[in-house]
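Re: folding output
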Amino acid sequence: MGVGLLRPDLVGANIASLQQDGTLELATWAMSSTWLFSLTILVVNAGGMSLVNLLLPSAIVPFAGIALFAYWAFDTGVTLAPVNDVAALTMIPHSLTVLIEFQAYVLVLLGAYRLGMSWLRPRTVGARNRRQGYLRGLRQVGWLSLPALALLVVGAIYEAIEILHLVPLLLS
């Protein structure tokens, strides 16, 4: 967010990019219902971000998801930077969403880390070889994904309520 505050032109460029790739159009369509919007947020956060961008790359190349998350966090921070009064007011209720989702992503990142360590150093999980270490690492990912999924569900419901109901009250 600091980079976004220092370079407000990047915020505008990120928002223009979201308009061009159809992300804002999808979000506007999903906002027709709180539950549809919650489900859309959950699918994007659990499926798109956690599974596709964090865990699958780490299942192919150890720790790759951690690097991808660092890029995503930078890009998202720039996009959410409170560069004007409306963005600053919006971030008041949205900061709880950021906190909840970030906690879930930390659990997923821990799973990606444990998978990489189990794969590269199988003895750290009591495995005899890399294959067995990889499988034990996947098991650890599964266990860490359960509380992460619970956080993402809570975060998705709160984010939909916050964006559709709390933010309009703040801005009126």
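--- second protein (sequence, then structure) ---
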Amino acid sequence: MADNKTILIAEDSSVILNLTKKILELQNYKILTAKNGSEVIKQVENNKIDAILMDLNIPIKNGMECSKEIRAHKDEQISNIPIIAVTGNANNYTMEDFKEVGINEYLPKPLDFDMLVQTVKKHTGEL
């Protein structure tokens, strides 16, 4: 059950962040947030996270850089966290680019909330 699963939402848009947070809280996920790349790294090092929704265009370190850093982490619990990229410009990237930095899957913006919930459930082992 989602009751004990924690999702990190890395998103610099308050509107998208709050909508996504509400949708996932309705599914009983615990939500942590990060508005930039350094906050993402701090959150993964200080909390047990079950999946990350990673906006690729966050400031300081973008989502691609954060994903690479997470995959290279020496702690296996951190380096194996599922990463779901969220982006409005997926056309700038190929699935190869995503795979190269260790992104498990991507969701296009505007977010389809049914797809969001289904994708999160899949990567947290609930489907």
